[in-house]
Specification:
232 residues; alpha/beta; four-stranded antiparallel beta sheet
Length: 232
């Protein structure tokens, strides 16, 4: 589904990504793990078109290396950003409807019901201002808003950041359901153990380079990964 080769990006004169090669197959969950500053968020931004990059990005046989962000969304590449970034004064339902703006309102009701089924708390608070939700509920809303765009490839950036363990379990339960429904996912997650435990494959990034790749199980068992990212 996604084939990335030689991807590079920089902030001004400072290189952030150094020739990343990466692939995601249809229906696959791929985890990106690495320390702070490894380039994980920059990579997601480059894939979604909001961070300048060079190299080659092919999505479902179309070269989108120079494509605008909105075109990538129309193809089905959708990012759920780090930090949730919900529209605080707007209601939960209005936030969700904004996720479907590229579709012109078509089938918005069926998409809403899908999101409410995945996150019942959002249905309960659908008329409430998004800024008054708890952190966990805002993360559900951010994921739900991304799902309203009917992604073929969902880019998830740190979905468990700052959440209590019970809410982390709920978020990861939702991610498992999305994977079971054949949504392809590229997951950046500080909780490397949890991410690799549910991933089909994973990539380990260090200072903007892929230093290791393998199945989730292989990476969980790797001594270097366990020492550097799992605290074992």
């Amino acid at each position: 589904m996604l084939d990335v080769s030689g991807l590079q990006s920089r902030y001004g004169r400072i290189p952030a990504l150094h020739g990343i090669d990466l692939a995601v197959r249809a229906g696959e969950l791929v985890a990106l793990v690495g320390g702070n500053g490894a380039g994980k968020t920059t990579l997601l931004k480059a894939l979604s078109g909001v961070q300048p990059s060079t190299g080659r990005i092919v999505f479902e046989d179309e070269d989108i290396s120079g494509a605008a962000a909105e075109h990538r969304v129309s193809l089905g590449i959708v990012q759920c950003p780090e930090g949730r970034q919900v529209f605080g004064p707007l209601s939960v339902e209005d936030n969700l409807r904004l996720g479907a703006y590229r579709r012109g309102g078509k089938d918005a009701r069926s998409s809403l019901e899908r999101v409410y089924a995945l996150f019942p708390a959002l249905a309960e608070h659908r008329r409430q201002a998004a800024g008054t939700l708890s952190g966990g509920q805002q993360q559900m809303l951010a994921i739900g808003r991304a799902l309203m765009a009917q992604p073929r490839l969902l880019l998830l950036d740190e979905p468990s950041m700052g959440l209590a363990p019970r809410l982390v379990a709920e978020i990861f339960g939702a991610i498992r359901k999305l994977r079971a429904a054949d949504t392809a996912l590229l997951l950046v997650e500080q909780n490397a153990a949890a991410a690799l435990a549910i991933a089909d494959r994973g990539y380990v990034l260090e200072t903007g380079r892929v230093v290791l790749t393998g199945t989730g199980t292989q990476l969980l068992a790797d001594a270097g990964v366990r020492a550097a990212y799992l605290g074992l």
